Amino acid sequence: MIDVCLLGTAGMVPLKNRWLTSFYITSGGHSILIDCGEGTQIAMAEASCRLKPIDTICLTHFHADHVAGLAGLLLSMGNAGRTEDVTIIGPPGLANLLQCLLVIAPIPFKVLACETDGKAETELSCGDMQIEAFPVQHVIPCLGYQISLPRAGKFDPEKAKALNIPVRAWSVLQSGEPVKIGDQLYEPKDVLGRSRPGLKIVYSTDTRPCDSIIHYGKDADLMILEGNYPDDEKIEKAKQWGHMTFAEAAGLAEAADAKELWLTHFSQSITDPKEYESNATKVFPNARVGVDGLKKTLNFRDEI
User: Fold this and answer.
1) Kindly report the CA angle at 43 between 272 and 218, in degrees rounded to 5?
2) Is 127 exposed, middle or buried (0-12, 13-18, 19+ CB in 10 A)?
3) Rg (alpha carbons) of the chain, rounded to whole number
4) At what angle do helices 70-79 and 94-101 cross, to 10 degrees?
5) 65 a catalytic residue
6) From 14, 48, 112, 139, which residue has the greatest number of CB atoms within 10 Å?
7) Is pLDDT above 50 for 87?
8) Portion of the chain with pLDDT greater than 70, in percent
9) pLDDT confidence of residue 82
10) Would you tell me how many other CB atoms lie within 10 Å of the CB of residue 274?
11) All domains of the chain, ordered by start, with CATH?
12) For the chain, what percentages of helix, strand and coil (3-state, to nearest 5) are there?
């Protein structure tokens, strides 16, 4: 399973009742944070999301509302006792950004910069979760992220018995690790059936609608997409600045056959995004306007 939390839903500036867009994902004791604008630490505290387990930070792009909280967050992780390396993924130029930020944030762990344009295949992992970045269309280089949790096939005890594998080794093989007994090496494939559907989350803000979001979001269990503008009244502004409307985001979720859509990254001009939710649900019924602290546990489909 994967636990998710939409920490903040604001775009451009934090508001009195709306923190900047950030997203927290955790599975098996490992956590991923996507984007880190100012105030992210407070949003995490309010949502009871822990700092120390964050192994990977994914940055969509380098506008301040997505990175300005990073130095303070890294400092707080160090103060919380973090000593293990932290991987930060982002567009080209990430290493230079981190070099500047770490001048004011001396920390007791290494930060590993992973730069990608999303065009070359760059696949990373955080615990059992797999991370893929892909390019989207903003006014500066910007990435979307696919977070997936694969699932092995069901353990077949009859296969294990036929191979005379001791019961004590079954759980190891079931977890995906090989086992050596005497001179014989047994692989998980020897006792597991076909792989089963896992879980997939796609996150993308600050972009115009583009095919890459549909491609990576195909059959996603959850899509988190920006709804910077509520309707077509500001469509020209959306095109000029590389943003989407509620209906455009919903159209991507519909095209991708996603299970659920959360909207986020709302313009500060929108007092109550909930008032415009129907603009999205008319296009994709299982859409909802995100709110700060929105949480959900995603379970494998046959365990729901």
Assistant:
1) 70
2) middle
3) 21
4) 60
5) yes
6) 14
7) yes
8) 99
9) 92
10) 12
11) 2-151+196-303 (3.60.15.10), 153-194 (no CATH)
12) 30, 30, 40
